[in-house]
Amino acid sequence: MARRRAVHALALLLGMMLLTFGSAPADAATGNHEPTGFAYFHTYAENEALIDSLVAAHPNIAKKFSIGKSYEGREIWGIELTNNVNGSLGSKPEVFINGLIHARERAANELALYMMQVLANNFGRSGKLGKNVTKILNTTVVWIVPMVNPDGAEYDFSGTTPKLWRKNRQPIPNSKQIGIDLNRQFGYTWNCCGGKTSKKPSSEYYEGWAPEVAPEVQDYEKFVRDHSSGESKITEILSLHSAAKEVLWPYSYTRVDVPHDMTQDDHATFVALGKGIVQRNGYRAMQGSSLYVVSGDMDDWAYGTLGIFAETIELPKGSQNRYYPTQAEINTFNAQNRGAVLWWMGQAGCPYAVAGLGSKYCGGS
Hints:
This protein is α/β, with parallel strands linked by helices. It has one domain: Zn peptidases (Aminopeptidase), CATH 3.40.630. It has eleven helices and eight strands. Strands 1-2-4-3-5-8-6-7 form an eight-stranded mixed sheet, with helices on both faces. Helix 3 crosses helix 10 (327-345). The model is unreliable at 1-31 (pLDDT under 50).
């Protein structure tokens, strides 16, 4: 296994050297654990191998990290990208991109991996893309965790066909059922408001027996909290999901546009950020609750608890298989979102500016 992973990492590195950005996922010959016909998706091991290869190729701008461990003990790997990555962060704003909190939403993982490669492979290059990436990494710290739910992802692909698994793999006390929906687990407004949330352990939307009992959620919250204060801190979070072809902003727990726990200026900024993304990817922008009401949502937690501008991109569904789009469809989704995600990163220094509020909040930005 170690030899196979080493060979795979080398193949990925060589492939990236031939491309300006991006690389195709592993094929059937190098994939592991994928069901038949789905070897183009990245497994947990292939996620780590790609991160390792990017860090090896770009040690001055890329660093591997983990936010913690899953219930079954897997490291939840990520990559930090910024110029002088081994030095002080100074006063750079930080952004956090995360994917695959729901195991079956494979396109989310692929977009996160793609954006890692766009950033790492284009820093310092000439041309419009290279200059844009270089500006972003010179001024911003980018954290990307492509697979928040590795246990669920591995189980989803553990058979001859995908299992359509959504939750983590945590046993439920006093039940034979397995798994919690991690995006119903966050502490802010957990179990408050009904909607597409369930108290039944058998449900794929099971919220857990208490808030924040899933280690993956504990790890996520700790990482964000650790980077939410000080001179350099997270100002924006982008969560990647599928498959609604939408961009969503808080709140999901209520249908009220500007409830008591949100300011009018913050709402205007959320709307402007969402509309800025959809102007570039062609999706629909709306409040999260317009899709459906959810309690314990990750973006609601980030904003409601820490005041971070957290939004979600819901990637489109596959034409033949909702959660498992074809390689060609993944390539299309990635292309649709490259400019949108780069634009979003560029707002990190003063998110309020996109709503015309820069002079009020950012010293004249």
